[in-house]
Amino acid sequence: MTDQLPYCSLLIFPLFFIIFPLFTFDWSSVDEIVFSKRQLSVYIHKPAIKDPVEIDNYCPLVSKDLVDKSFIDQYPFKANLTHYQVSEAFWIQPGGSYKPKDCISRNKVAILIPVQNRDDQLYVLASYLHTFLNAQLIDYTLFVVELSKENKKWNKGALYNAGFKEINKLDKFDCFIFHDVDLLPESQLNIYSCFDNPRHLSVHVNSFRYHLPYRGLFGGVFAMMSNDFIKINGISNKFNNWGGEDDSLFQRLQFFNYTIIRSYDLGYYTMLPHSHQTINEDRNKLIKDSIEQIDHDGLNSIDYKVLDVKRDYLYTKFLIQLKV
């Protein structure tokens, strides 16, 4: 594996730190839906088939060609391949779009990756995801939302909101996958599609010794139907620096009576090593106040400017300047 990924000499990455919410909340009371790999086709969102005549041409919900082992161990990508070479090998259209050739995908998926100063990790993730997703038979596009250098403080929630709004100006997507740039999925049966409930994909991460730290965690990689993300008014824009926005998002889902869904036998991820980030010292107070802020903090309040839009061979990238 060391000859395949530039970061993978440190695949088993030591846990730098983990921040648990300090405010009072009984995480053991969190309700969740748990599914197994055998139940994938039961839970995947199934939109109405628009043309019954074409029913035999629709892709299977779960392809028979998926690898039910650690995909990283079988990853064919070589570090010296350019993005152009990857796009040619896996039939990726400019801007990072892919459609199955021989069947019609049931869902249209946008995969949204927020970054700032993570070019090396983005290079690895973009190439890896296209290789990983190719056999899943889904219609998807990779989008990157990059925070401009003018913004000195990281704000993932605001970037997700801005990216969501810009993507919807380009095309209509049923499903959004919100994806940290440093996480590589391991099992191809971890289908990158939405379910009828908000779904937490990155359940087990190697840097957490493949254990879920607490049941209310809804960060890393998660999936939501577009209409559901709009209903909860997106994510809070108030979380500058690192930590807290995912717990705030979980509070919103609880407030709107959503039950999250997880697969404990499929949600395995490898984290690419990265440097420490500045911790949000106000995160716990902001999480406590999350519910009170829902109506006026999120998609309807995000203030930003698009500085540039670039269509790479493997993704479409928005350069965003936040005004928060």
Shape: globular
Q: Radius of gyration in whole Å, from Cα?
A: 19 Å
Strand percentage: 15-25%
Largest sheet: 8 strands, mixed
Low-confidence stretches: 1-25
- Tell me what the CATH architecture is: Alpha-Beta Complex
CATH overall fold name: Spore Coat Polysaccharide Biosynthesis Protein SpsA, Chain A
CATH homologous superfamily name? Spore Coat Polysaccharide Biosynthesis Protein SpsA, Chain A
Helix proportion of residues, in percent? 10-25%
Count of folded domains = 1
What's the total helix number?
A: 8
- Whole-Å distance between the termini? 41 Å
Mean pLDDT: 84
Q: Tell me the structural class.
A: alpha/beta
Number of strand elements: 13
CATH class wording: Alpha Beta
Order of helices and strands: EHHEEHEHEEEEEHHEEHHEE
What does it look like?
- The radius of gyration is 19 Å and the shape is globular.
- The chain is of the alpha/beta class and 324 residues long.
- The protein has a single domain (8-322), classed as Alpha-Beta Complex (Spore Coat Polysaccharide Biosynthesis Protein SpsA, Chain A), CATH 3.90.550.10.
- The protein has 8 helices and 13 strands.
- Helix content is 21%, strand content 19%.
- Strands 2, 3, 4, 5, 7, 9, 12 and 13 form an 8-stranded mixed beta sheet that branches. Strands 6-11-8 form a 3-stranded mixed beta sheet. It has a two-stranded parallel ribbon with strand order 1-10.
- β3, α3 (119-133) and β4 (139-147) form a beta-alpha-beta unit.
